[in-house]
Structure formats: C-alpha cells, structure tokens
Amino acid sequence: MFNHSRHHRRGGSTGFALSLLAGFCTLGVTAAFIGPRIIFAYDGEADILVAADPSHQNTIEIFAGILARSRAVLALHDRGETPYEEIVLWIEDRDRPGKIDPHEVVVISHSKVLQTLTYFGVDKIEGSQPLSLDELKTTRFCDQRRTDPGVTVRVIGAGISDLDLSQEGIIQGGRALLRISFTWASELTDSPDEAAVLVDVVMQTTNGQE
Fold it and tell me: How far is CA 89 from CA 86, 117, 119, 200, 201, in A?
C-alpha cells in the first residue's frame, strides 16, 4: 500500500520507521496483529466504525499501527484554514535517550485537496542538534518537513476525503486515547465509507519527559 511519491536524496529514513512500514506493507496488518493498544470496541461515547471496504479498513489499521508503535505523539495540528490535518510523531529514541533527534521524528499529513495521507521522514544527519518540543509543536515545523526536498515520502492512503484526530482523554501515565476517523467519498454511492478507531498513545508534554 505504501508507494513512493517523491524520490529523496539522502537514502532511507529512520531504520525503525522504515522496517515498521515495510512490515505493514508485507504482512497486510490487521487488528489482531497490532495488539491491545488499538481499540475497535469501546464503552465510552466515541463511535468506533469499521469501513465497509476491506482496503479502507486496512489503511486505517496501518496508520493506527504506526501511532501505536511510536515513542510518543508530539503534536496534533487541526486543519484550520489550511488543507492539512497533521500529526508529529517521535518514532523512536535510540541515539540520545531523552533527546528528540530530527531523524527520529516523522510528520504524517492529510491533504484535503489531494485526499492523501502521507508520511514524511528524514535520514540521520551527523552533528544535528536535538529538536525542542516548542519547535515541534508549531505548524511551521510541519511546513518545513513537507517542503524539504530531501525528505522520505510514503503515501499511506489515497481517496481519503476527510481525516479527524481527536483526543478522548488522558489515562494513567500520561497516556491518551486518540480517536482516528477516516472518510472516503464515493462517486458511485450517496453514502461515504467511514472508519474510526481508538489508539492508546503517549502524549509528549515536555521535552524529554512524558
């Protein structure tokens, strides 16, 4: 399902992230494989929806799996007046524990214009300085990552007319339930296809701390 949409100049992205993506692509991950951090049934007010089209359901499960396996969610950016709904993820914390290195961060962006969900990552750069949480929480960081000609780009899903990310509350240890909902508009039917899941994630509130 993941396809190159732009060739990058610096080789592969973070090893963990790419192996994760490759694993999803190869295995065709399902809810049973992802495990308990992704919730498909919930007693609260949030609606959990299963897509009518299996390929649509697989797309939301892939995205949910990336979030569930990430070190932390660093920022959520509502669409506002822009075409983009975006999430900033700390994929791993391998090189300098507690420090957020540029190659450990990915942006996943939904374009309402293109109706695509796209992954943007970068390679490890020797001598790069850790990123501050204040910097990562700005939409400017996402703009820079999306427009950097050296990024690694993967299209996770296409034909997604709307995406919504909403926090359903904080649970123990700074963890949150993040609700993900996708909508696929159809020219063949009056009703759109929809899917929604809850993901147990860590919301990063301070630099280097959960």
Answer: 10, 14, 10, 14, 10
Task: Give dist(CA 159, CA 114) in Å, integer.
Answer: 8
Backbone CA torsion sign across 22, 28, 30, 33: negative
pTM over 0.70: yes
Weakly modelled stretches of the chain, pLDDT under 50:
1-18, 20-21, 23-35, 45, 207-210
Burial of 172 (0-12, 13-18, 19+ CB in 10 A): exposed
Can you give the pLDDT at residue 186?
Answer: 79
